[in-house]
Amino acid sequence: MSNTIPPGTYQLTSRNVRISDAGDGRITITADTQMANGSWTTSSLKYDIANCNGQLKFAPDGC
């Protein structure tokens, strides 16, 4: 797994972006993200693209 963070507009209002690997090909992206009022919170996103019976799908919890 590469520690390169994925591109996206989230980077404009995020800091301390981290990637962790569950060891099964699924990753979690965690970052400090800025809210509309200017304060910061921590947010996470589970990420996986899976082959679900011949169809590629965003499937962070499996097919």
Descriptive report:
By secondary structure, the chain is mostly beta strands. The chain is built from no helices and five strands. The strands form two sheets. The chain has a three-stranded antiparallel sheet with strand order 1-2-3, with no helix packed on it. Strands 4-5 form a two-stranded antiparallel sheet. It is elongated. The two termini are 21 Å apart.
CATH topology: HIV-inactivating Protein, Cyanovirin-n
Give Rg in angstroms. 14 Å
Q: Could you list the spans in which at least 5 consecutive residues all have pLDDT below 50? A: none
Secondary-structure-based class equals: mainly beta
Tally of helical runs: 0
Shape: elongated
CATH superfamily: Cyanovirin-N
CA(first)-CA(last) distance: 21 Å
The string of secondary-structure elements, in order, is EEEEE
Number of domains: 1
Helix content: under 10%
User: How much of the polypeptide forms β-strand, as a percent range?
Assistant: over 45%
Order of strands across the widest beta sheet?
1-2-3
Number of strands: 5
Major sheet summary line: 3 strands, antiparallel
Mean pLDDT: 90
Mind telling me which CATH architecture this is? Roll
CATH class: Mainly Beta
Brief descriptors of the model:
HIV-inactivating Protein, Cyanovirin-n; 3-stranded antiparallel beta sheet; mainly beta; two-stranded antiparallel sheet; elongated; 63 residues; 5 strands
Short description:
The protein has 63 residues and is an all-beta fold. It contains no helices and five strands.
